[in-house]
Amino acid sequence: METVPLELSDEAIDAETHVIAVTGEIDLATSPQLKASLDALVDRGVSNVVIDLTHVSHIDSMGFTVLVHGLRRIRDAKGVLATVCPDPIRRLFEMVGLNRMHPVCATREEALAAVRGA
Fold first, then answer.
1. To 10 degrees, what angle do helices 31-43 and 61-76 make?
2. Are strands 7-14 and 17-26 parallel, antiparallel or unpaired?
3. Strand stretches in the chain, DSSP E
4. pLDDT one-digit tens code per residue, 18-50
5. Phi, psi of 5, rounded to the nearest 5 degrees
6. 83: which DSSP letter?
7. Less Cβ around it within 10 Å: N or C end of the chain?
8. Rounded Cα distance, 88 and 106, in Å
9. What gap in Å lies between CA 102 and CA 109, rounded to an integer?
10. Which CATH fold topology does 7-115 show?
11. Is residue 56's pLDDT more than 80?
12. How many whole angstroms separate alpha carbon 73 and alpha carbon 90?
């Protein structure tokens, strides 16, 4: 099976808040890209991150592992990670319990409010 390329875009909302918009599939082959992007933001002092999965068609266990890694790093930096996650990907988050670990939101606006403490 051929891997669908992963596209990431990073939008700075302010000095402490960024949105990573993801397009494609997050799997064993592509998850290192997302991990590198999350690590780079935390290393630069960004403490609040929204990961927008609106245009993600598939996520596997490595993708979830990267999200948990990012969640831990951001929490260690006293920040908040929120995910924009429409169905059917949202149902996967609920099945593995990630919705109990961090805000899983229907819209980018809702996720931004969650990371800003609104």
1. 0
2. antiparallel
3. 7-14, 17-26, 48-59, 80-84, 104-105
4. 999 999 999 999 999 999 999 999 999 999 999
5. -60, 145
6. E
7. N
8. 11
9. 16
10. Transcription Regulator spoIIAA (3.30.750)
11. yes
12. 22
The torsion angles phi and psi of 80, rounded to 5 degrees, stand at: -130, 135
Q: Which residues contact 113 (CB under 8 A, 6 or more apart)?
A: none
Structure confidence at residue 2 as a pLDDT band (50, 70, 90): low
CB 59 within 8 A of CB 89: yes
- In terms of phi and psi (left: phi > 0; alpha: psi -120 to 50; beta: otherwise), the region of 58 is beta
Res. 4: pLDDT tops 80: no
**Which pair of tokens denotes residue 57?**
């068609």
Show the tokens assigned to 24: 């494609």
Domain boundaries, the chain: 7-115
Q: What's the rounded mean pLDDT across residues 60-80?
A: 95
Residue with tokens 């996967």: 92
Mean pLDDT across 62-90 = 94
Which H/E stretch holds residue 37? Answer: helix 31-43
